[in-house]
Write a structure and sequence with these properties.
A: about 110 residues; mainly beta; B: about 120 residues; seven-stranded mixed sheet; four-stranded antiparallel sheet; 11 strands; about 0% helix
Chain lengths: ~110, ~120
C-alpha cells in the first residue's frame, strides 16, 4: 500500500467546515483513497473512499486532485462529536492476501465550541 | 444489520497468563482481521482469516495466534502475557465479494490490561 502523509493535528471551530489534507504521492493507478476516523477508545469508523472523482456521502466529501497525489476530506459543518483521529489510507479495491489496512499516524481533529 | 461485535469489552490479566478474545463479524462478511492498538505503536495489523485459514500475518511473535470458525466468527489468543501486551485489540470484517468487498468495518475493541 502507498504511504500517506497527514498533519498530526488540526483545530476547527464548531459549525465550520473541517478540511483534512492527505498526501499520497506514490499512489498507483488501481489504488483507492480511503478515510477512516477513530473516536477516542472506539474502533475506527469508515467514512468514505474514492478513486479519482470527487465523492460525497452523508458524512463527508472527498476531493482528489487530478494527479491523484493528494486528497482532502471535508466535513462541511463540524460538530463536537467529529473530534477524532482521521486516517487516510490508500489501497486496492479488490481483495488480495496482502491487502490489509496500514494505518499511519492520522490527523487528530479537535472541534472547538 | 448488526455490526462487528467483540467480547469481552474489558479484560484484566496478569503476566504469564493467557487470554482469548472473540469477534463476530457482520453477517455475510467472510474475512476477519485483528489489529493491536497502543499509544506508542499506533494501530498495527496482527492477522487476517477467511475460509478458516490465516491469509496474512503481521510482525508479531508466535504468542499471538488466531483461528476462524465455519460461521466466520474468530478468536485470537495471546499466551504468556507480557506487560507490553496491554492494548486495545480491534477486530474488523469485510465482505470480500459483492458490493464494497474490501471495505473494513471495525468492532468496538477489547481493552486488555496486563498487570
Amino acid at each position: 500500500d502507498a504511504k500517506t502523509t497527514q498533519p498530526p493535528s488540526m483545530d476547527c471551530a464548531e459549525g465550520r467546515a473541517a478540511n483534512l489534507p492527505c498526501n499520497h504521492s506514490t499512489i498507483s493507478g488501481n489504488e483507492y483513497v480511503y478515510w477512516y476516523r477513530q473516536i477516542h477508545s472506539q474502533g475506527p469508523q469508515y467514512i468514505i473512499h474514492g478513486l479519482k472523482n470527487n465523492e460525497t456521502n452523508e458524512m463527508a466529501s472527498l476531493i482528489i486532485t487530478e494527479d491523484r497525489k493528494s486528497s482532502t476530506l471535508i466535513l462541511p459543518h463540524a460538530t463536537l462529536r467529529d473530534t477524532a483521529v482521521y486516517y487516510c489510507i490508500v489501497r486496492g479495491l479488490r481483495y488480495n492476501a496482502g491487502n490489509m489496512l496500514t494505518f499511519g499516524g492520522g490527523t487528530r481533529l479537535m472541534v472547538k465550541p | 444489520k448488526a455490526g462487528v461485535t467483540q467480547t469481552p469489552r474489558y479484560l484484566i490479566k496478569t503476566r504469564g497468563q493467557q487470554v482469548t478474545l472473540s469477534c463476530s463479524p457482520i453477517s455475510g462478511h467472510r474475512s476477519v482481521s485483528w489489529y493491536q492498538q497502543t499509544p506508542g505503536q499506533g494501530l498495527q495489523f496482527l492477522f487476517e482469516y477467511f475460509s478458516e485459514t490465516q491469509r496474512n500475518k503481521g510482525n508479531f511473535p508466535g504468542r499471538f495466534s488466531g483461528r476462524q470458525f465455519s460461521n466466520s466468527r474468530s478468536e485470537m489468543n495471546v499466551s504468556t502475557l507480557e506487560l507490553g501486551d496491554s492494548a486495545l485489540y480491534l477486530c474488523a470484517s469485510r465482505r470480500l465479494a459483492g458490493a464494497q468487498p474490501n471495505e473494513q468495518f471495525f468492532g468496538p475493541g477489547t481493552r486488555l490490561t496486563v498487570l
